[in-house]
Fold this sequence. Notes:
By secondary structure, this protein is α/β, with parallel strands linked by helices. It has helices at 12-21, 33-120, 125-131, 135-242, 322-328; strands at residues 254-263, 279-281, 292-295, 299-305, 314-318, 330-337. It has two domains: 12-31 and 231-337, Barwin-like endoglucanases; 54-209, Helix Hairpins.
Amino acid sequence: xxxxxxxxxxxxxxxxxxxxxxxxxxxxxxxxxxxxxxxxxxxxxxxxxxxxxxxxxxxxxxxxxxxxxxxxxxxxxxxxxxxxxxxxxxxxxxxxxxxxxxxxxxxxxxxxxxxxxxxxxxxxxxxxxxxxxxxxxxxxxxxxxxxxxxxxxxxxxxxxxxxxxxxxxxxxxxxxxxxxxxxxxxxxxxxxxxxxxxxxxxxxxxxxxxxxxxxxxxxxxxxxxxxxxxxxxxxxxxxxxxxxxxxxxxxxxxxxxxxxxxxxxxxxxxxxxxxxxxxxxxxxxxxxxxxxxxxxxxxxxxxxxxxxxxxxxxxxxxxxxxxxxxxxxxxxxxxxxx
Length: 338
């Protein structure tokens, strides 16, 4: 309660107790060991859930790695096949060029031969027969004309057939090469999509790990704070059990319903000791100074101060910040005296 003047009481043991109250950092504030451990338990459960999610994400990552490896192997196979088809197409193109040159050469040879026959004047079968001196000569001449003509026609026909075959092979191989190139591009796009998914999944796993580490650090800090509060309470209890003065009854026990008000004054209590967590201002006629108590929602406290406005079944509870004192406000609680 701001502005309140607390009455000084000569109570030497309270000074030692208040020093112990100040051993716990003020930031533990209105947290009790139970609430701190509850928060730590909640974070532990979060870490358990994070571990399950991380395991599931890791399995998905393994699956993506397997798919990516298969896709990359497929791309390599397509590239090898494409190279083989390209080599076959290039060979077919070379054979086609050779066939074209052969056809041109055969056609030139046929043209020259026909020209020679016409120049020699023996290209006409009738003329060959009439100009022969015998039947055998006539037959031989006719046979020569037919054989030469047949050979020329065969060369030309074979060369034309080879050219048609090589053209068809070249077109088929070119079409197959284009198909393989398209398949390779499609496979590469799939591989890039898998790589992107894998990177996102790996980043997600890293994020889960970071969150788990932060939670673990927070859990450790909360447990340490709870232990510090418990240790301070044990120290206060030990001092309270070993001290007593001014005719007050330190060993008062039982339950008592009181109106508890939060305050956040700085400085020292009526005994001259500094304020601290667990300091409770009481009406000594109701709660003797030095009495230990358990306060629901606040934790362990010690009757170590008085106040001009603390009368009857009322107590004041110290908080390290005004915000925490306001959050507590004024409420009715049933405390347990030890």
